[in-house]
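User: I'm putting together notes for a lab meeting next week and I want to include a structural view of one of the chains we've been expressing. I don't have a solved structure, so I'd like a prediction I can at least talk through. The sequence is below, exactly as it appears in our construct file.
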Amino acid sequence: MKEFNIVLAGVGGQGTLLAAEIIGSAAVKEGLNVRVSEIHGMAQRGGAVVSNVRIGEGVYASTVLEGQADVLVGFEPLETIRNLKTASQKTTVIMNTQRIPPVELATKGTAYPTDEEVVAKIHMFTNRLIVVEAAALARKAGSRLAQNSVMLGALAAAEGFPVSAESLVEVLRELVPKKHVEVNVRAFELGRDSVRKGQKRV
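Assistant: Thanks for the context. Below is the predicted structure for the 202-residue chain, given as structure tokens.
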């Protein structure tokens, strides 16, 4: 495999960085060459967080260039839109529907885009959009805080994703605090199943 590029975009507190760490560690377990980028933006709660994960033999730099993402995982709709520059027609966008409006919207008096506007914007770059109701699935698993594991499971079901679900779950069990492990594993499985069923392709 030459390369597979993943962009994870969300806001601080959503577990975006942990998800990137799990992907990177799982890829290493499978003997794959992997680069995980530094964080772009502010990592505190509520600030934008973006992480790049690049997997493959020919990968040396850690940053995904414009139009080069194979998968864009949007943990929040507005942050998904903000990172569409990394997408192209080959990109699969996996987007969580839960909104976390940034402070600057209220400050500037700007309205949060409607669901229709978000989808239309994404379709300007790619028609490969999978919408994930991560909050509802995380609650079903046992904790609303497990949305990042739902999104990780959704990514595991994406076409061409080179890391096995087994390795991802193994690392998840290693990195998540013990008392939260089973909830997060259930959340992962629910996220993966939601994409496998293909019910949320938009």
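A couple of points you could mention at the meeting. The first strand starts at residue 4 and ends at 11. The longest helix spans residues 181-196.

User: Perfect, that's what I needed.
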